[in-house]
TrEMBL record:
Annotated segments matching region Disordered: 273-310
Matches recorded under Gene3D superfamilies: Dihydrodipicolinate Reductase, domain 2, NAD(P)-binding Rossmann-like Domain
Name of the protein in its database record: Gfo/Idh/MocA family oxidoreductase
Lineage: superkingdom: Bacteria
Source taxonomy: Bacteria, Bacillati, Actinomycetota, Actinomycetes, Kitasatosporales
Gfo/Idh/MocA-like oxidoreductase C-terminal domain: residues covered: 147-359
Keyword annotations from UniProtKB, A to Z: Oxidoreductase
GO molecular function annotations of the record: nucleotide binding; oxidoreductase activity
Organism in which the protein naturally occurs: Streptomyces alkaliterrae
Keyword Coiled coil assigned: no
Family as reported in the entry's similarity comment: Belongs to the Gfo/Idh/MocA family.
């Protein structure tokens, strides 16, 4: 795949960001801005308050009212980032690719694996990068789990438990809580995209899925308390929870092997740091976790704390920039996104019909 961009020489690659809501303002804009090889050139938002906020935060970037205005100036861009509502992801990604632009799409890439595969085929046909923003692969605790597996400290793993639970007993409103299937709202496609992606990236393809998806809060239109049980082809079983109604969250990770187990509580700190207005800066430490939040390694005979690796969300966009310059592979591919979506689709069927769904 030829994804290199050389039209602007050695200058930073120019990025157009579509959407300046939670995803755009708290995640994509600051992370793009933190990578020296990238420059935020344009921000798309029709909301006057968001346009004002974007201009104040990124005075070097222009604001435009809609995607039409952005694509009208496609020649001045090297990358488009789609951080708009889920229902628009496929349409905007396709428009970017047909305009000759590489594209990063916030998760989920699409509503179905077939749509993700079609976008991947279009990107390959045009020789353009298409990547999905699965930032939770760069959570510090997830990087720590990867390290423990690589070192063989846990032995042969047989069970992986992952929880992304929050305490939000009152609805906030908006499309993420809508019951309209076209919106792709609910936690299965939101936080579920993260926990399934992490499980698949660690343990490989899934052969069976069982799921329970409930709307527990009063007037909730979409699932807000969901459980998935996955059996991987490798033999590992993953049990995954996502919830907005966890008054007392369980461990973020519990990884059990035949030599030891690893248990870790609490979420990676990077999201809270970004929401609080902190920004990654080149050369400065980022994503560090307090020692009191470290996980423990061992068994009932003996456990010891394990320092959590620093989280590194900027590494995602650094890898995107490198792929664009070199023509290499993106940090998260459309094929990987399709694998996750196959699991999410199966989970939706399983929850609706109360049965285990077998995959190929």
């Amino acid at each position: 795949m030829n994804t290199s961009r050389s039209s602007n020489g050695g200058a930073p690659l120019r990025v157009g960001l579509i959407g300046y809501g939670v995803a755009g303002s708290f995640f994509h804009a600051p992370l793009v801005n933190a990578v020296p090889e990238l420059r935020l050139d344009a921000i798309v938002t029709s909301d006057p308050d968001r346009r004002r906020s974007a201009s104040e935060a990124y005075p070097g970037a222009r604001t435009v009212p809609d995607a039409d205005a952005l694509f009208a100036d496609a020649d001045r861009l090297d990358l488009v980032v789609v951080a708009s509502p889920n229902r628009t992801h496929v349409e905007l990604a396709e428009r970017a690719l047909r305009a000759g632009l590489p594209v990063v799409v916030d998760k989920p890439l699409a509503g179905t694996a077939a749509e993700a595969e079609a976008l991947g085929a279009l990107a390959a046909e045009r020789g353009l990068l298409l990547s999905v923003f699965q930032n939770r692969r760069w959570d510090g605790d997830f990087l720590t789990v990867r390290d423990l597996m690589a070192e063989g400290t846990l032995g042969t793993i047989h069970r992986f438990e992952s929880r992304f639970e929050r305490w939000r007993p009152r609805l906030k409103g908006g499309w993420r809580e809508s019951g309209d299937p076209l919106e792709l709202g609910g936690l299965l496609y939101d936080l579920g995209s993260h926990v399934v992606d992490q499980a698949v990236s660690l343990f490989g393809p899934v052969v069976s899925v069982y799921a329970e998806a409930d709307a527990r809060r009063a007037d909730a239109g979409a699932d807000d308390d969901t459980f998935l049980a996955l059996t991987h082809r490798s033999g590992v079983r993953s049990h995954l929870w996502v919830s907005a109604l966890a008054a007392q969250p369980g461990p973020r990770f519990r990884v059990l092997g035949d030599r030891a187990g690893y248990v870790k509580y609490g979420l990676d700190p990077q999201e809270d740091q970004l929401r609080a207005g902190r920004r990654p800066e080149p050369g400065a430490r980022w994503g560090a976790e307090e020692e009191s939040a470290w996980g423990t390694l061992g068994s009932t005979e003996r456990t010891e704390p394990v320092p959590t690796r620093d989280g590194d969300y900027p590494a995602y966009y650094a890898a995107v920039a490198e792929a664009l310059r070199s023509g290499g592979e993106p940090p998260v591919s459309a094929a990987e996104a399709a694998e996750v979506l196959r699991v999410l689709e199966a989970a939706r069927v399983s929850a609706a019909e109360g049965r285990v769904v077998r995959l190929g």
